[in-house]
Protein 1
Amino acid sequence: MLLQISSGQGPVECSVGVEKLCKALLKEFAGSRIVSINADYSGHGYKSAIMEFDEDISSLEGTVLWVWKSAIRPAHQRKNWYMDLHVIKEAESIGEFDLNDCEVTTMHCGGKGGQHVNKVETGVRIVHKPTGTVVTCTEERSQVQNKQKALKRLQSILAAKQKDNNADALNNAWQKHTEIVRGNPIRKYEGEKFKRVS
């Protein structure tokens, strides 16, 4: 299941919060991974990120509040920073997909698997050149399997950015990037260490 985490039109502190939330969710959910990142132009945090989970995380959809006195702008009075979590419907198949629009590279994988993962470039990184969308897949032992999974992820992400009848428009999933509803957050974190309090 794919989850988009976004800072919306929030300031840099919200981008820092997105990065911290990604790291917190990686620790909380086994089988979770970050598959796409849109870094903040300031060099701090992520404007948005897309994570994939092996389990149903529909309950995470909503707004997350982070209460933190900004270390980036110490004189700033605001302490409440919001992030949006939105589930992206996964594409069922790759379908019609032009690989000429993609730059595919391979890489060595770390982690379990013995010496095999260090000797063979089984990991796959795909850049969709028209949109700049980047996805990676390293969890499978086969390069072919990693490429198939990465392409499926890429199609899911691109589909979430398109209107049904207009490839140049953005659909609701991408509009969520700039629309964050403040109030009734599903989770609340506090402080520099990003401690969950509710």
Protein 2
Amino acid sequence: MPGQRTAVRVLIATGLLAAAPATASGWVDWAELNPRQMRVGIVHAAVNITGVALYVASLTARLRGHEISGRMYGWAGLGVVGIGGALGGHLAYRLAAGANHAEAVPQLVEPGWHYVADLSDLPQGRPTHRDLDGVAVVAVRQPGDRVHVLAEHCSHLAGPLSQGTLEDGCLRCPWHGSTFRLTDGWNITGPATAPQPAFDTRITDGQVEARLHT
């Protein structure tokens, strides 16, 4: 708009400065993706880098007094960044990059106590796949007949936790090494960024029952 040249330059410069930490966090996320997601991520990054370059050209032209070419570069940058945004949306919503793959569990499990297994059927010190109200869970029996129950599919990329290993009161995912505390599902180490849905447990007449931990 007329008379807004200084504001435009400040806004473009601010956007370019903000691109640096956004790029850094994006590469960190990219490093934890699977190969299919990585391929789209590379294209997404390349498009965004092109958009940033166009905005640098726009700012440079404006600072040199070439307003028309600055606007042209700016419009081109906007179009390219729009394409990058569409790819980012595809990556997040269609390919589930960075998604919490255990998020649906609290919505699928009905309130109240549910049968998990007979205590005698759970081997001590070994994760075991079970079914709770139609939802896959992993049960871990520890000394003293303490039983911990977590959602089976890892929140990172849905790895099977029942095939994982026990480490210092935590369960380690066999796919990418995320570890979750057995008592409350808290994610101790990544790449998982979300805790694992956990269940309260009790033993009634030799049967293990669980309800969603709140």
Protein 3
Amino acid sequence: MNKPRLAWAITGSGHYIEECLDFLLTLTDVDLYLSQAGEEVLKMYGIDLADVRTLMPVYRDKAASAPPVGHFYQGYYHTFVMAPTTSNTVAKCVLGIADSLATNLYAQAGKCRVPSIVYPCDVAPEIETTAPKGKKVMVYPRRIDLEATDKLRSFEYTAVVDSVDELIVTVTQRLNALGLT
């Protein structure tokens, strides 16, 4: 290993997924992790995974034990980003459930004291988002989803961001702090 990399997970949320992916594709030294739902959502938004694979390694959620999480114990990753993140994944992270690739990555990053940056899809009582085929829609997260997002904000080694712009700033600041930009 030459230098630690960034691990990025996409779960099944389409909330600003194209903007998140546009930013992700500007970065170097990144490994992309896809939940099964994340892979489905990329297809729904017309994003060709083959194009992404030409730019970075892509790991898919195909094994029960999520073997790639062992990279955290080897110092392979300096930061974990999960963006966009479903309310289901946020709830599991808050409860300490690590039963998927994305939730296992988050758990192992925390256990290894690797900072995580999470962009949940449910950050406000009313949110405009883009559905597949570009249609703008309003979404009204449930109180329980907003409460889970707020709980995640208090977790150690975790920064929760509320927008793509904040995601870009936070990831860039982290890379700058590590001297990686």
